[in-house]
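B., you asked whether I could sanity-check this one before it goes into the benchmark set. Here's the sequence:
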Amino acid sequence: MKKIGILFGKERSFPLALIERINSRQIPGITAEPVRIDKAVQGDASGYAVIIDRISQDVPFYRTWRKNAALTGTAVINNPFWWSADDKYFNNCLMTKIGVPVPRTVILPSREHPDDTSAESFTNLAYPLDWEGIFNYVGFPAYMKPFAGGGWKHVYKLKNAEEFFQRHSETGKLVMLLQEEIVFSEYYRCYCIGRKYVRIMPYEPRNPHHLRYVSDFRPTPERLQQMTDIVLRINQYLGYDFNTVELAVRDGVPYAIDFCNPAPDADIHSVGQENFEWVVETAAQYAIVRALEHKDGEDNLTWGEYVKRSCEKIPLS
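And here's what the prediction gave me:
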């Protein structure tokens, strides 16, 4: 029996619907269930052919447990080693090398010293930083947000340098990004599953949370294809099998704003019935394929083009 396990936290609508959808297919030798862990022993297999991870970003125990699951043959979605290594700043850096438009972005050292460090720990860091050069590059208004994490936590819109220094003083030990504001005419949130299935969703981030999928714009067929190509390129290079990409359209150009969301919101109450149905159905189909392709005791992970090209010494393009 090939088991598909869903690793999740407080969310209910998506993981439970996904389990029900997979099991409703009644495919011989395939079953789905919530992941159950009663002990974690080094080198022991998890018992699952496939695990869809929805929560390890918030639970360090799960974050390391799933690596052993992958080591012992589970196809973990998303790849736990890449997910642990990745961050939003690196994502932006990579996009500059593969031709995906992104806002001008810099990374900033934390306002307060990390634990167990002092001023002597930062011999290689100029003090003060070249703030004039940074502000001239990014421009104002600008957004400041953590280089890792999500959920609109600790995100600031800044009008000028004075406001920047005031807000940065409140960020403590967080490492922040400072990013050009993209004044957009259209905004889209895009699911990508299996690095080949894409759902483009009009999205209005300026609306209240429960109304963000309500908008008065729709993409033309040309824009739809353009954004689909960008979403696929991003996920093929990063290697995410379940991710969302946010695109802001300025002067006809879609800019990738946020595209490191390996456990994206899929709650029916926020994404709406049609989008929910698509993500449940597509995730179920993809999980079943991965279970059918699973080979016991072998490496069943997927890797992105960046890692594969690095191993093969192939230039980015």
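One thing to flag: The mean pLDDT is 95. Otherwise nothing jumped out at me.
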